[in-house]
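The data are quoted verbatim here:
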Amino acid sequence: MTTTGTTAGPRALARQRRRASAARLWRRYRAHRAGVAGLAALALSALVALAAPLLVGSGVAGVTDAPGRPLQSPGAEFPFGTDRFGRDLLGLVVWGARVSLLVGLLAAVLSVAIGTLIGVTAGHFRGWYATVAMRITDWFLVMPTLVLAIALATVMSRSLTTTIVAIGVTTWPTTARLVRAQTLAVETRPYVERARALGGGHWHVMSRHVLPNVMPLVLAQTTLIVSSAVLTEATLAFLGLGDPTVVSWGGLLQDAREAGAVSAGHWWYLVPPGIAVAAVALAFTLCGRAVESVLNPRLGVAR
C-alpha cells in the first residue's frame, strides 16, 4: 500500500507540474494579441480544410465536374467566380487549403527534424564531425533556398512527395545552427557534467538532457518554417513544378498566369488564392513570433 502511494505521488506531482507549466505558457501566449490572432486564423484555416467535403462537396471532382461558364465574375452562383475551365474558384480554394497546409506542415517537420539531428549531434560530439557538419550547413546557408528547391523539383518526378522533400532538405540549416548553439550552452551546465560523471553515455545525455532543453526552440522554429514552406510550395506550383494532379493555391495562381488573368483584368482569378497564401503565411509567422517570445522572456511581451 505504501509502495503504491509512493509511486503514485511523484507521478501525480509531475502531471500537476506539467499542467501548471502548460497553463502558465498559455497565459503568456494570450498576452500576445498578434499571436492569438494568428492562432485564430490558423484554426479557421484548418477547420475549413477539414470541412471541405461539407462545404463544397464530397470531393474535388465535385468541383471540377460541375463547371460553369469560363472566367465568370463573382456572383450569387459562384461567389469567387470561375476559372478558365469554368470551375468554381471557391471550391478550388477550399480544397487547395488541404494540399497547401499539408505540404507546408510536412515540409517544416522534415526540415526541423534534419536541422535538430545535425544541430544536436554537432554540438555534442564536436571534433571533425562538427567541423564537417557545420561546413555543409554553411554551404546550404549561402545557397539560395528557392534555387535549390527548384533544382530538386526539376530533376525529380512532379509529386507532392517531391515538393515536400525539395523544401525540407533545403531549409534546415538555420535550425541546425540555432540548435547547435543551444546544445553547446546546455552541455556546459552542471547537471550534464554530473550525468557524465555517473556514467551517462552519449545517447543518455542527448536524449534525456539536451533534447528536452532544445525542444522549445525547435517548436518556435517549426512554426516559423511552416510559413516559408507554404510560400515555397506556392512558388514551386506557380512555376509549374508542383503536382499537376492536385489542386493547390500555388497551382491556381499558375493557372491564372497561363490564362493571362493579369492582363485581361480577371482579378477574381488571382485574389482568393493569393490572399489565402499570404494570410496563412502571416498567421504562422505571428504564432511563431509569439511562441518565441513566450519561451524566451528576454524578448519581452509584444502587445
